[in-house]
Write a structure and sequence with these properties.
Radius of gyration: 47 Å
Order of helices and strands: HHHEEEEEEEEEEEEEEEEEEEEEEE
Distance between the termini: 114 Å
Helix content: 10-25%
Strand content: 35-45%
Number of domains: 4
Number of helices: 3
CATH topology of the largest domain: Immunoglobulin-like
CATH architecture of the largest domain: Sandwich
Largest sheet: 5 strands, mixed
Length: 340
């Protein structure tokens, strides 16, 4: 609060006008040489030194008296003094700031998403409500020309934003599922303090778990898919909060292929055994299986899709052929076909 310069100068003028300066204006020497101990009308040296000392002490007394008078007068005016605020406050908590002096002043509070101007009474505590201090970050408070800074930190964990990728993965594959958790308090501030976050992936009673420590409000992990196909329940939990996502685990590439061949009226009918991956999960219907027949006349290739766990195809007739089967990078057994 800015005061008029005339009001500040008044105590100094009052001190100057009322202080008995004339009492110490000067010290007169004695009238005669006999009284002063002078020789040939000159004052005694010791008396002159004492007079100078008295004058100096008078000046010091004058300055000290003026200073004390000014301090007492200034005490009649209201000043807030230095602001006493804590270094950190938890989001959602109120804050009480003590003030000194008297009179009315203007409070300014500036922080993340916050700008407040408020009239307050000096000498009483300034109250900042929980709503004023919801957003985490650095705050500056200004009152009557004095300023101070403090930080609002996040409250305890209240909620999690959880991302799980991808939504469809092959079973029994290492480090194929990624999970990212963002940790928030009830006011949607990132909880920057390290927090243990538990990730769990469950399919048909099989569970894969991992605990990660968050950094700057984020925790990340990669998990192996389970051996069992199905809808995996992927859960991230921290404190009282937990979030669930669903990741579909499907059979991976066929682990082994076996087929049989027989003659029919159209040529050679080839058919696979039930096709499974290495974990024993049935390979999804629609997966492509390629049958190849090689003989003296050349090569014949037929692509067939798995239906109900098996694939079959019709190859042209041949007297002497080599028949093979493959799906992706997996090659099955070969059959040496000889017609009778």
């Amino acid at each position: 609060m800015i005061r008029d310069s005339i009001q500040v100068e008044q105590p100094f003028r009052a001190a100057r006008d009322t202080f008995p300066i004339g009492l110490f204006a000067r010290v007169r020497p004695a009238a005669s040489a006999a009284q002063t101990g002078s020789c040939h009308g000159r004052p005694d040296a010791s008396l002159k030194a004492r007079s100078t000392k008295v004058a100096t002490m008078a000046k010091i007394a004058l300055y000290c008296g003026t200073f004390l008078f000014v301090v007492c007068c200034l005490g009649l005016y209201g000043f807030a003094g230095e602001l006493n605020v804590p270094a950190a406050v938890t989001a959602g908590n109120s804050l009480s700031i003590p003030t000194s002096g008297s009179g009315e002043a203007t409070l300014y509070l500036v922080g993340p998403g916050t700008a407040i101007k408020r009239k307050v009474e000096l000498g009483a505590n300034v109250e900042l409500s929980a709503n004023d201090l919801e957003n985490a970050g650095r705050y500056v408070v200004v009152l009557d020309g004095e300023s101070a800074t403090f930080f609002v930190t996040a409250a305890p964990v209240h909620s999690i934003a959880f991302l799980a990728r991808p939504s469809r993965v092959p079973a029994d594959t290492p480090n194929v599922i990624a999970g990212t958790a963002f940790i928030f308090d009830r006011y949607q501030n990132l909880v920057l303090e390290p927090q243990p976050v538990r990730f769990a992936l469950t399919v048909d009673g099989q569970t894969v778990t991992r605990v990660e420590t968050s950094r700057y409000g984020i925790a990340y992990t990669k998990l192996n898919s389970t051996r069992k196909e199905g809808a995996a329940q992927f859960v991230a939990a921290a404190g009282p909060a937990s979030v669930r996502r669903v990741v579909q685990e499907v059979a991976s590439d066929p682990c082994s292929l076996r087929m049989t061949a027989q003659r029919d009226q159209y040529g050679i009918l080839v058919r696979t055994d039930p096709i499974r991956d290495c974990a024993g999960n049935p390979v999804p219907d629609g997966t492509i299986v390629t049958f190849t027949s090689t003989d003296a006349e050349g090569k014949s290739t037929v692509d067939a899709r798995i239906k109900r766990g098996v694939a079959e195809a019709q190859l042209p007739p041949s007297k002497d052929a080599t028949i093979s089967v493959a799906s992706g990078v997996v090659v099955g057994n070969e059959i040496k076909w000889r017609s009778e």
